[in-house]
Amino acid sequence: MNYTTSMHNDEVKQNILKCSRCGLCQGVCPVFEEIKDEKTTARGKLMQIWGLKKGDLKLNSKILKNFDLCLNCDKCKLNCPSGVDTTGVFNKEKKINLLGRFLNSVFVFNLKLSALSFFSFFKKTPIYEKKSDILYFEGCIAKKLKKEFKLQGVKLKNGNFECCALPYLTKGREDIYKKIVKYNEKIIENAQMVVFDCATCYSAVKNYPFKNPKNKEKLVFYTDFYKQIEFVAKKNYKITYHMPCHLKSSGVKLEEIENILKSIKNINYKQMEKADSCCGFGGDFFIRHPKIAYSISMKKAKNIINTKADFVLTSCPTCLWSLQFSMFINKLINKNNKIPKVMDLNDFINTFCAVTLKKQSKTSQDAGKCELLL
Ligand code: SF4
Ligand code: SF4
């Protein structure tokens, strides 16, 4: 199979025709919740794409704006009873002109990311194992911030992957996406396992059109390892967890993460209301639509603060930024409220927890991962 596309043209048509127009996607869309405009829902977008394809509609700035009003959160896709791959269609049908091609080129993307180097100027580049078949997929943000990923008890080699390519796919640069997929698959091909700590990268790579489908089975989100370990927190902490949209869409269940957190001794886990609702960041959505993003992030913040937790944890660098921002704003405006500290889940475990003992593995798949623990 060639790396031709993430979705073929006939698949786009099939997906649109599968839509029964039930409207369930409207009820789960965070953008619709804010602006109450049907044209921005998945159903609305699909109908406009279909209208353009049939020639009933002409592309104009209003339609482009409707397409642009999307957090790429996959909520519509996950909740569609007809199984329409909504975001797959949106990505395939993205329309960009010459300027758009330039603004979404590798050069400009790297230029934007290079601003992050400012924050890690004095930091040392993390050192990983030289020899190991278990590779770490270091995302672009972790790379630029020189953020070290430590997985308790596992020898990790940096796979030196390219970007997960989602920023290109969602911006209409399928040509770049295909090249990156090809490059990254070559590395995955020679690995025993590839471990991710970024929900977005994990979701993006899991959706690659793999040449060798077996490569998909090698992809693991790091929390899978922690199902095999028992931890004790150094102090009593109350914590809550924000479920990143892309962790959910990659197939990881909120309960899996919660079970890990609940099993940590001295931890009091409190589920926030709507733990899996979007944080509002959405790649660069917050720059393009700051008012909507701000409103979504403040709703999330309210649910976090209501838990009265010491920490809010998450597993995606952009969710982390979004939560840090909304907690900071709340600190300024609600001086009397207890504002939880924001932390990456794995950083929290490495900083505040110690291993007590390995749990018994319940499945052979889990046992395989247990053997990899030192
Ligand atoms: S939920 Fe699915 S089938 Fe229903 S309107 Fe939305 S896209 Fe169409
Ligand atoms: S991906 Fe999210 S924001 Fe975009 S249409 Fe679907 S539910 Fe709405």
Describe the structure.
The protein is globular and about 65 Å long. The protein folds into 3 domains: 9-95, Alpha-helical ferredoxin (Fumarate Reductase Iron-sulfur Protein, Chain B, domain 2), CATH 1.10.1060.10; 106-224, no CATH class; 229-354, Rossmann fold (3-Layer(aba) Sandwich). The protein is of the alpha/beta class. The protein is built from 21 helices and 9 strands. Helix 10 links the parallel strand 1 and strand 2 (157-158). Strands 5, 6, 7, 8 and 9 form a 5-stranded mixed sheet that branches. A 4-stranded parallel sheet has the order 2-1-3-4. One iron/sulfur cluster is lined by residues 19-25, 42-43, 46, 76, 80, 82, 84, 86.
Spell out the blueprint of helices and strands.
Layout lengths: L8 H10 L5 H5 L1 H6 L6 H13 L6 H8 L6 H4 L7 H7 L5 H6 L2 H9 L19 E4 L2 H6 L11 E2 L7 H4 L4 H16 L3 E4 L2 H8 L12 E3 L1 H4 L2 E13 L3 H5 L4 H10 L1 E5 L15 H4 L1 H17 L4 E4 L2 H17 L7 E4 H8 E6 L5 H9 L2
Parallel strand pairs: 1-2, 1-3, 3-4, 5-6, 5-7, 7-8
Antiparallel strand pairs: 5-9
Helix pairs in contact: 1-7, 4-7, 18-19
Bound molecules: iron/sulfur cluster (2 copies).
